[in-house]
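## tool: complex_structure
## caller: assistant
## args:
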Amino acid sequence: MGPAPPTDWNRISARKVPDKMAAGRTLYEKIWDAHVVHEEPGQPSLIYIDRHLIHEGTSPQALAGLKAANRKVRRPELTFAAMDHSVSTKNRLLPVVDEDARNQFEALAKNCEEHGVHLFDMHSKNQGIVHVIGPELGITQPGQTIVCGDSHTSTHGAFGALAFGIGTSEIEHVLATQCLSQFKSKTMNVEFQGKRPHGVTSKDMILAVIGKIGIAGGTGYVFEYTGEAVRGLSMEARMTMCNMSIEGGARAGMVAPDDTTFTYMEGRPFVPRGKEFEEAVAYWRSLATDKDAKYDSTLTIHSGELAPMVTWGTNPGMVTQVTDKVPDPQSFNDPVDRAAASRALEYMDLKPGTKIEDIALDRVFIGSCTNSRLEDLRAAAKVVAGHHVAKSLKQALVVPGSRAVKAEAEAEGLDQIFRDAGFEWRDAGCSMCIGMNDDVLLSGERSASTSNRNFEGRQGKGSRTHLVSPVMAAAAALEGHFVDIRKIKDLEGAE
Amino acid sequence: MEPFIKHTGMVAPMDRVNVDTDQMVPKQFLKLLTRQGYGRVLFYDWRYTAGEKPNPDFVLNQPRYKGASIIVARANFGCGSSREHAPWAILDYGFHAILAPSYADIFYNNCFKNGILPVTLSNEQIDEIFKRVEKEPGYSLTVDLENNVVTDNHGLRYEFEIDPFRRDCLLRGLDDIGLTLVHETKISSFEAKGHKHPKLHSPVDVKFHSDTPHAAHHN
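## result:
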């Protein structure tokens, strides 16, 4: 499977006129129907929002707007705030020297205080990336509508929720009304047939999808991930997959809740208890797409053909298997795609035909809302245990997604494994995925990163990012260049 | 919000596919607390070299595009991050309309919230506009939302489609929140019905605020 141009639509069997007379409904349609507050022909529907997550980066202007219009937060108890984007991952007891970041933190704290919104500030023991703490605390639940001023809100869809990113004007709208005006999306069944091969993670599965359809392939759609390989994924792995739905252009990604979901949820702080939990589970079970429901289109992936993936360009669709080579831009049919590939290779300082495994790295980052959960850290620790990062590497960084993940990892001794192997072990936050704090690449530096975007300048001006899974990042850190994780022995369970 | 009815202005070309919002407003400018003032940083990393010197190779720095108020762009314009800073920067720089074959979902929505009109045209039509921009310095277009048409002075006339509701909101500069609050009774009755979703359990073991208060907010 080489890099496919974004116009590779022949793999998608679009059903132009979905048979709406069919009785069955999809997961998406069930959640949508349960949340319609108002609808009339020719207009977007007014949809009720169950959970609103905010962070310091995109909320201050919304709260200022609310204040200017003399409006209140309608349902503060359904709104949860976290400090994640700009927080230091080093010593939080030190003063925040970045004045702009300090202003953001102070604005968020003041706004939450004023409106009675729950805030996980940088000193809370439950602080973390908003998309990690929502699920971990049980704030995220199946069947909900969840929004946040952050495109990776799609993460929460792993629970069978309808979750998507919104802009600041929409944040203000939700704060004021607890509703959003929405046009209904089309649905795409992204079906992974068969079992996931050894060494292939959900990160590789979603990168393969994006490689096939391109980064705009899902525009206008909500993805539902189905099939044997998806059912076999843990909640953490499903979150990784849903997280990157937006990188395929989709509004949201979802997985129907099942026993894996309910087992994960039971006992989490905000999840109902006892009889209420049983009733909730009964409702959650009813959300699964009906057998006779119709999707607007279907994309079929044969899981057996999947392999560990590495991005070579400047968007997540520029991706290939670890055993492949950097493609030749001339191999792209469309002139616009050809120009984009040429430009990407120039930016990435890569020559066509270079083996992916020969690409040498400066830094390795294990973290972000995509891959910073306990399971990710366990898998990476298993790879590095008893080894040391390559001498050629300038830095190898592990940033847990939340303080709870950090504490659990430390209780298991993972921090010591990483430290012994030459990794830095940090406090929780978005960190080098977006580089709003001081965790950045210098211009011209190259990273293997478990994050979600390899855009130009994403990890620092002039930074060169290759997206991979946690085990691939860990193995690359040891060797100083990419290696096929499938060649490494003793990996049972590390995926 | 300012209404968008009809706009005539010079066109600047952005001849790249998949221009993402990280390029429009890089992360270091996401720490500001305002909606204004982002025009200066639009396309920052492309636009400036070290020391904030204008990069002469970047298209918007070419003298012939000074004063442009319409962007013609390639497919999937505005992909990536949900940051509304991107349309704020576009508007603050002086752009009022965008012409492209397609847009990313969140960015497209965000444009309408800020009085910017993102027009969708076919690949062939966009190619033709790129050619005309290249050929004629100062090339201008008129984007007419009342008649759903893009025209120039040389006979170009492209009709475009747009959702009627979004069109109406732009034409009238409507406030979204105000529109929704018209349905206050319906929202309240929806809430009163207590739809099926399980309640939040009230946890006793969750720490919202500082374990170590006041540590970080001192100078």
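## assistant note: Confidence is low (pLDDT under 50) at residues 215-219 of chain B. Chain B is about 30% helix and 15% strand. Handing back to user.
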